Amino acid sequence: MKKLLFLFVAATSLLVSCGSDDNSSENATSPLIGKWEAKSFDYTVTVDGEIIEDEDGEFEIDGVIGTIFEFSGNNVVKITTFDEIDEGEGEWVTDEGTYVYNEAAKLITITTVDDFDGSLDIIELKVRTLTNSNFNFTISETIDFDDLEEDEEEEEFSEIVITMDVNCERKN
């Protein structure tokens, strides 16, 4: 389970974006432009369609609080997050990419280049609130164990979905 949560935190900490789509333009007057710091978050874990209650704190998700999202007017995003190498040890890292904000759909599409294999990772942030001082979004990550190689850890389930609601405040 710890490996699964590390994969999720790694995916969320590697947020960077991609440009495209003529319906989704960003301009310098958007309240999204600027630095945002993650102050709190809530999450749910679903295993094979069933919500799992985390009464014992089994799902430990680190590295979210304190993450900085910096959106610029030229569709570049920098994300600085704590990358835990070992338990209690790690470092702050900054990833950069591009993003597209579709204001009508309330969707930010971020594309990153995976440092391990060079593939593109596309992440979607569903905007819940965006004002001059608050930015709240939902992100969902699905891990399909049917797609894992046979030498990786075998589990009794086939799919885990982690959904996070992240609350950010503008950083001066």
Question: What do you see in this structure?
Answer:
The chain has 172 residues and is mainly β. Helix content is 7%, strand content 51%. The protein has one helix at 2-13; strands at residues 34-47, 50-52, 68-71, 76-86, 89-102, 107-113, 120-130, 134-144, 159-170. It has an eight-stranded antiparallel β-barrel. Strand 5 (89-102) and strand 6 form a beta hairpin. It is globular and about 50 Å long. Mean pLDDT is 79; it is low at 1-27.
What is the percent of helical residues? Answer: under 10%
- List the total number of helices: 1
What is the strand tally? 9
Question: How many whole angstroms does the radius of gyration measure?
Answer: 16 Å
Distance between the termini: 37 Å
Oligomer: single chain
Biggest β-sheet description: 8 strands, antiparallel, barrel
Question: How are helices and strands ordered from N to C?
Answer: HEEEEEEEEE
Query: What's the mean pLDDT score?
Result: 79
Low-confidence regions: 1-27
Overall geometry comes to: globular
**Class by SSE composition:** mainly beta
Biggest sheet: strands side by side, in what order? Answer: 1-3-4-5-6-7-8-9
Proportion of residues in β-strands: over 45%
In short:
The protein is mainly β and 172 residues long.
What keyword list fits this structure?
mainly beta; 172 residues; 7% helix; eight-stranded antiparallel barrel; disordered N terminus; single chain; 51% strand
Compile the SSE list and pairings:
Layout: H1 2-13, E1 34-47, E2 50-52, E3 68-71, E4 76-86, E5 89-102, E6 107-113, E7 120-130, E8 134-144, E9 159-170
Antiparallel strand pairs: 1-2, 1-3, 1-9, 3-4, 4-5, 5-6, 6-7, 7-8, 8-9
